Amino acid sequence: MKYVVLLFFIASVTSIVLGYSLEVPYTEKLKGFGVLGLFLITIPLFIYQSWKGKDVKDYMLTNESLERMREKKKKN
Questions:
Q1: 21-47 b/e with 16+ CB inside 10 Å = b?
Q2: pTM metric for this prediction
Q3: Most Cβ neighbours (<10 Å): which of 13, 34, 56, 63?
Q4: What are the φ/ψ torsions at residue 24 (nearest 5 degrees)?
Q5: Among 5, 15, 3, 13, which Cα is nearest to 41's?
Q6: Nearest CA to 12 among 42, 32, 28, 34?
Q7: Could you please report the per-residue DSSP string of 8-57?
Q8: Counting Cβ atoms within 10 Å, is residue 58 exposed (0-12), middle (13-18) or buried (19+)?
Q9: Looking at residue 59, what DSSP letter applies?
Q10: Closest C-alpha to 30, from 41, 20, 40
Q11: DSSP SS3 for 1
Q12: At a CB cut-off of 8 Å and minimum separation 6, what does 18 contact?
């Protein structure tokens, strides 16, 4: 999965760079497709890959997590 994300990232950045460096009639399309690929494909895939297998409750601020933090602070 990380290679797919890397492939889309490289393709998007390449498209953006070629859009700025080449002088062809479709440079705006190259830049646009690069930005769309980056924000609509690459970033969601990266977020999915990095959050896969993690529990969201570990990152939420609840009464239980506040109590655990207070107990840990008292021990130190």
A1: eeeeeeeeebbebbeebbeebbeebbe
A2: 0.72
A3: 34
A4: -120, 165
A5: 5
A6: 34
A7: HHHHHHHHHHHHHH--STTHHHHHHHHHHHIIIIIHHHHHHHHHTT--GG
A8: exposed
A9: G
A10: 20
A11: coil
A12: 30
Residue type, 36: L
27, 19 contact by CB (below 8 A): yes
- What span, in angstroms and rounded, lies between the C-alpha atoms of 32 and 48? 23
Q: Which two tokens stand for residue 19?
A: 């859009």
